[in-house]
Amino acid sequence: MTKPFASLSLDLDNQWSYMKIHGDNGWEEYPSYLDIVVPRVLEFLKQRELKITFFIVGQDAALEKNRGALAAIAAAGHEIGNHSFRHEPWLHLYSEADIDAELAQAERSIESVTGVKPIGFRGPGFSLSEATLNVLHRRGYLYDASTFPTFLGPLARAYYFMTAKLDSTQRKERKALFGTLGEGLRPLKPYHWRTAEGELMEIPVTTMPLFKIPFHASYLLYLSGYSSALAMMYFRTALTMCRVSGTSPSLLLHPLDFLGAEDTQALSFFPGMSMPSSRKLELMGEVIDQFAMRYTVVNMRTHAEEAARSARLPRVVPRFPALQRQREAFTALPLG
Questions:
Q1: pTM of the full predicted structure?
Q2: Which among 113, 182, 271, 325 is placed 20 to 30 Å from 61, CA to CA?
Q3: What does pLDDT average to in each consecutive run of 10 residues of the chain (336 residues)?
Q4: Where are the domains of the chain?
Q5: What is the C-alpha to C-alpha distance for residues 122 and 145, in angstroms, rounded to an integer?
């Protein structure tokens, strides 16, 4: 029997982007672990004959020191997506003109290194706005993958503010991070956004059907710190619920899913970074092998194309929390 399809993607957030969001000094020097993690992930995927989507940050593509690692991703046959230029999770507060400039700059940098112009986008920190959707449509994107349907956004934001080292200005610009409770009401299955510019495919990052709680790889690694058996049972339950509900999952990976304590000391504040890379690779192997056993694993572009062929997709009018006052406050802050 033919297995249903499911997609796999990796947001290639770099060390400097985690430091920037955490409020750490030194991020402006753009410290990078791409030379470590990219070969490691490419070998991991090659062993399993998987082709996935890498969402690349434009700023990394603009730096000569990262060109070899990023070019290797495209050379290995993986899809290249746009993850913005500056990797600022408050992208949803940008004006439409600034969003257009941000995406265009990322596109130029990414294409110059990989030879590929992205047609898929994921906002940093799942940031999304109607203005972003308008820009994506005008720039010819096939799909967006920025929605993360979960009720846990406010909890994640509270944890972030407790652990990050932010000044008052940074707190102001980041006070809407990770969305509201309303994010949990968004669909799990692909759909079309219906905007003033036209329609655009949305492929949500899949959360557990009904409960809308995360099961992406970083969350599973966090659970494995308590019990590996519990983490795998949780993952299998989530996949079973996807099958029962007819949801083709889109599973999300991050670089820190493959990096251990011995690879970088600067990110010790991040959950799971006390674990050695060998243990992480073992756990990730279990997760991805379970995923591939149940599904035909494809990249995000193929997921979008398959979804468009397989069903009449719902049309959804963009409705985002009222952000006008936050945007007004943000426009007084310098970008970058």
A1: 0.93
A2: 271
A3: 91 96 93 98 98 98 98 98 96 94 98 98 95 97 96 67 70 68 89 93 97 94 93 97 97 97 90 92 97 98 93 88 51 47
A4: 5-326
A5: 5
